[in-house]
Design brief:
By secondary structure, this protein is an alpha/beta fold. The chain has one domain (about 5-190): HUPs (Rossmann fold), CATH 3.40.50.620. It contains seven helices and seven strands; from the N terminus they run αββαββαβαβαβαα. The longest helix is centred in the middle third of the chain and has 15 residues, at about 90-105. The mean pLDDT is about 90.
């Protein structure tokens, strides 16, 4: 089995733990992510939601400010939502959220992303943690917005989520400067599973 195979097998297999914040990545397919975040908040998964990402080109891309309003419509109280709207792509989102985690002293983040985007998002956050010097101080819990059909296309697209998954895996290689390696992702996950 390759490191990629191992990482993909392990990524979604851990326990869902309580966190300090639920992180929702704005962008394509954001509304299913919001539904997962609202449910996590409602059930005590974390006391707050951070929506991150400023790119706003409906219907495909919804920025953090638009997502804030949608969270309110889902019954989330305004004082439980933190918005980061300066970032324009996943690497900037990761760096911004890692800085927020450091500023607020958050030790565990529930990272909500579409299932097809989660491997790259997770590895991008691991890289941002490494670059920020907080790699082993913040635990990322991957939470896939997996209630969406793999053979369906997100709003504003014609590609299925399965096709988008294939593209995301290619982006892990293409964006190597901003993304941790599969090996680094495995080391990170093993560290937290082992409680080291």
């Amino acid at each position: 089995m390759t490191p990629r195979d191992r990482f993909l097998a392990v990524l979604g297999a851990g326990p869902l733990l309580r966190g300090d914040a639920i992180v929702v990545l704005a962008g394509e397919d954001a509304e299913p992510r919001l539904a997962v975040a609202a449910e996590l908040l409602r059930t005590g998964g974390a006391p707050r939601v951070v929506v991150t990402g400023g790119k706003h080109e409906p219907p495909r891309w919804l920025g953090a400010e638009a997502l804030r309003v949608k969270l309110y419509a889902l019954g989330v109280a305004p004082d439980r939502v933190l918005v980061e709207s300066a970032s324009q792509h996943t690497a900037e989102q990761a760096r911004a959220v890692v800085a927020l985690a450091s500023e607020h002293g958050w030790a565990r983040l529930l990272l909500v992303a579409s299932a097809y985007h989660l491997p790259r998002a997770f590895l991008t956050f691991v890289r941002a943690l490494h670059d920020y010097g907080g790699l082993i101080r913040v635990q990322l819990i991957p939470v896939p917005a997996a209630h969406t059909p793999w053979w369906g296309a997100p709003a504003g697209t014609t590609e299925t989520r399965l096709a988008l998954y294939e593209r995301e895996l290619a982006k892990i290689e293409a964006y190597a400067d901003d993304v941790a390696t599969y090996e680094d992702g495995l080391v990170y996950l093993e560290h937290w599973e082992g409680g080291r």
